[in-house]
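Input record, target 12 of the design panel.
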C-alpha cells in the first residue's frame, strides 16, 4: 500500500479540479497514474508533483501550472 495514498487521492482531486472536464482524459489519467506510484518519502511525491506541474504548464499554460503548484503545496504540508 502506498504510504502517501491519502495525499495521492487529494492531489488527484486537485488535478481534476484545476484542469476541468475539458482536459484530455489520457493526460489526466497519466497524471493520476504518476500520483498512484509507490512514493517512499515526501521528496519523491514532491518530485512527481513538479513533473505534473511541468506537464500542465506545457499543455494548459503557466497560469494553471502556478495554481496547481499553490494547491499542491497547501495539500502536502
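The sequence produced for target 12 reads:
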Amino acid at each position: 500500500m502506498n504510504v502517501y495514498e491519502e495525499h495521492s487521492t487529494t492531489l488527484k482531486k486537485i488535478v481534476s479540479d484545476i484542469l476541468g472536464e475539458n482536459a484530455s482524459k489520457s493526460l489526466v489519467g497519466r497524471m493520476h497514474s504518476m500520483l498512484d506510484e509507490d512514493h517512499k518519502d515526501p521528496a519523491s511525491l514532491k518530485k512527481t508533483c513538479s513533473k505534473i506541474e511541468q506537464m500542465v504548464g506545457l499543455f494548459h499554460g503557466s497560469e494553471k501550472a502556478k495554481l496547481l503548484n499553490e494547491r499542491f503545496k497547501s495539500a502536502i504540508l
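The radius of gyration is 11 Å.
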